[in-house]
Amino acid sequence: MDKKIILLTNDDGIEAKGLSTLYNILKKDKKFDIRVVAPDKESSAVGHAITVFDPISVRKKYKNGVFFGYAVDGTPADCVKLAIKAILDKTPDLLISGINRGANLGDNIIYSGTVSAATEGTVYDVSSIAVSVDNLKDLDYSYAAKFTNKIANLILDNGGLPKGTILNINIPDVLEDNIKGVKITCQSDAKFKDIFIKRVDPRGRDYYWMDGEFAKVSGSKNGDYSAIKDNYISVTPIHYDMTDYKAIKYFKKWKIDKKI
Amino acid sequence: MDKKIILLTNDDGIEAKGLSTLYNILKKDKKFDIRVVAPDKESSAVGHAITVFDPISVRKKYKNGVFFGYAVDGTPADCVKLAIKAILDKTPDLLISGINRGANLGDNIIYSGTVSAATEGTVYDVSSIAVSVDNLKDLDYSYAAKFTNKIANLILDNGGLPKGTILNINIPDVLEDNIKGVKITCQSDAKFKDIFIKRVDPRGRDYYWMDGEFAKVSGSKNGDYSAIKDNYISVTPIHYDMTDYKAIKYFKKWKIDKKI
Hints:
homodimer; alpha/beta; two-stranded antiparallel ribbon; 11 strands; 25% helix
């Protein structure tokens, strides 16, 4: 039987340690055919951007003389589109985006290149997950990679994810022994508090630097943010149907017509 | 009583006709205090990108010697963040993103700068709508602008939108008389069929151009795509909670633990 194909991508770039650790762990047990198509440089906070006005260059990337994958001069979503529609000879059985340096939780996932790559896989009906570690330093990703390997096996043994569902997985920044367990969560209402630092350039023109920190968390105890803070691994099923179904009835009552 | 403040932004850029037509119509009846903070250039398909590693410059923009608004060297989401947190003296009562050249329907809204700007407003609890016309030419936006003015009044008369709900409005590309009415819709499963055109540069390296067209539409008859094809104005309530609530029960049954 052919090996299952796993496509790896990320938003930290093809050189990122989180990606290579995951690659090595998945390669190790020789069950999977691993392909890498990732941005040639870091592209965090790009959201679900795609490149439509510029050409996208693709180069083969070697590590220690061995072919590692394709480096794409584009966004994470570009990588997934290109991988599935142009680079790979077969559609992958699973897409893993990560392992990302830094958590993707709460409202923040709308800015996440990591999550957008997984979303893009789902657009093509490929089972897709995003994996992040709650640490902005390049720590040891081995536990996270092994846990991801386990999840990959679980998904493929179950015949893939339900159509349209993406798993957004976050792993707390503690030693393995201190991880309390795994929670199936919802996206919490955790917001960044944005801070803009205003500067004036030498020609007298205004410019701003954006900075921020998690500030306001509300909503369900079953949220992703609470799970991570309590040292649980958070697994959030998400989808890209943004329809607010509960609101449809409300707006029908407005009886909007075309008259102006 | 103070006038209600409406913040206008878009992803076609501060020079776009859709934006200026809307500005003029809203200005006309003098009920609102209109502010414009928009990208200094076109930034379609940027998704929900924000600028975190670079400074963002902001310049005042004049039209015929009169102050028009702020031109931001950033994404639509940057514009909204900056407007609310740094540029405006007061939080706007309503944010309108548009009027966009080209529809934002189905799966496509995940790539949309227009929709992401409206989403960003909602992150700050500002009632926000995205408005697009199903035409890629710079046609006459007057009907769309007048309809948007009516919706703006409706929203403000109702005390704003429900917390977290965004309205994604699309207007069909037909004369006013041929518009059949207004439908409250859901996000349809309308996918782009991506086409990549492969080229080789003079140095022998591969690059790709992305192209595409709407191809696969399935799902509900109440979808935004069907409404537009049938010449109805489509009003879709959306939100940025991506949680797939129906899937939570399913994954709990997997009984995932932390063991590796």
